[in-house]
Amino acid sequence: QRDLELYFTWLIGFVLFAVSIKMIRILKFNCRISVLAMTLERSAPSMASFALIYLLINAAFNSALYTLLFSKLLNYRHFLAVTEATTASL
Question: Potential cystine with 69: which of 16, 58, 76, 77 (Cβ 3.0-4.6 Å)?
Fold first, then answer.
């Protein structure tokens, strides 16, 4: 039940994101929404490169943490657990 609830939450998040993007495209005739859409289009390459670099640095940090602590701490036995722990501490 817990896993189904987690999958459902992810699905709802994805659906809301898709609906928000669709609504921006539908409301492009509005001047303010058009400026928002144009800003998002122009900043998409910069945001994508930032996300890629962030994910690489985060993966390197998690790998180092896993390598150092997997034999010492029970909560850090799996790479996914390390990733969850570092994400939850943000």
Answer: 76
